[in-house]
Amino acid sequence: MKIMLLRAAGVLALAIVVSACTTVPSYQPPATQAPDGWDAGAAGAGIWPDPRWWQAFGSDELNALIVEASTNNHDLQAAAIRIDEAAARARIAGAPRWPTLGAGFEPGREQKATSKDLFAGVQASYEIDLFGKYGAAASAARARVEASVYDRQAMALSLEGDVAATFFQILSLRDRQREMAQSIDTAQRMLGILRTRDHAGSASDVELAQQSSIAARQQAALPDLQLAEHQAIAALAVLVGRNPEGFSVTTRSLQQLRVPPVVAGLPSELLLRRPDLRRSEANVRGMHGDWESSHAARFPSIVLTAAGGLASNALGALFNPGSAVASIVGSLTAPILAGGRLSGQEKLDAARYREQVALYDGAVIAAFRDVENALYASTLNQRAIALDREADAQARRALALLDVRYNTGAIDFLAVLDAQRNAVETADALTQAQLARFIAAINLYKALGGGWSDADGRPLQAVAAVAGLQRG
Known about the structure:
Distance between the termini: 48 Å
Number of helices: 9
Structural class: alpha+beta
Strand order of the largest sheet: 1-2-3-4
Number of domains: 2
CATH class of the largest domain: Mainly Alpha
CATH superfamily of the largest domain: Outer membrane efflux proteins (OEP)
Largest sheet: 4 strands, antiparallel
């Protein structure tokens, strides 16, 4: 009976081991097909933005704000702390690959080999990572440290863009308020002329009411612009890590800045120049490590335990040379029945790995889309602003000419009212087109990774040194 049980156990164990002997494919970076060039144009191929891209706008105040945000923004600080968390988890994950050592003193302990009452000594244990379970887990944890580093860098790039965009929005709102104030002055001037003519009997009550309505509507638009400016300034204060109270922006107009030319490098290099893509690839590697670890967990494990110390019946004789004892024990354990937990965990990790690959592929395609859209927007905004500038000039000229003709009685006042509305609309459209051109430049910088590069691996080397992960 005993022999039959041993044979059955052996057959069952062999079946378990054989079932676990399927292999996990070695990790290979997800294959991507980069386009040969950009549809929006290949100007500047092989050239990438400077890492301090915001300096090209020519604003010392913007430069200072971005530096301040890089230091004080609370979300960015939290992202840096998450790197420390990931590094700590990596050290924990790598700990089982090393022996453990403990020491102790136990009075009244009965040793089977010596029958002694007192024992003092050390005990060490080590699990041989024969199938790479702990090595794969440590590799997955290191990949997540990398992902947290790239996550912070992606957040920093996004923060730089948000600070610049909010700064430009504030200046644009100030330009729009100045344009509106000029329109209000024009409307008030014409209203004064109509009142004078109304007293003289040469203007109708309808014309006076229409012009009063134009002036009131323009005045009503000004508080909305002022509120939007206040909200944008408060938002900028939060981005740089300050309280909104007392925070101010001294630059007055977008006209004080310049829009720098932005060139795009080769599409094939984009994968190394976007921290969000590097983060996604690190997540793929992390899940592959989890898959390898859960697969290896289905194999037998070998644990070596060694103990050494002093044992005696009396405390006074504990430290005599003859009290030394030592032992070493090895054990082999293999999972036989776990209710499907181990195989289920492996299937779960394999599915999560495939999910991360799919997410990475989608992120790559989205990155190429971002660059194409930003390139087209940059080109088309330049054309739009030229047309808006011409429309604004012609609207101002038409209003001036119609004002003269109305004063000479050549036309009725309705044409002047339409010209006023058109002048206000074209002036506002031009100001917003100028803002759109600045925003397009920011979006292109961000789509290109802001000049960031991990080609030499220096960011990860620095983190590995701080986290102490060289040993795995």
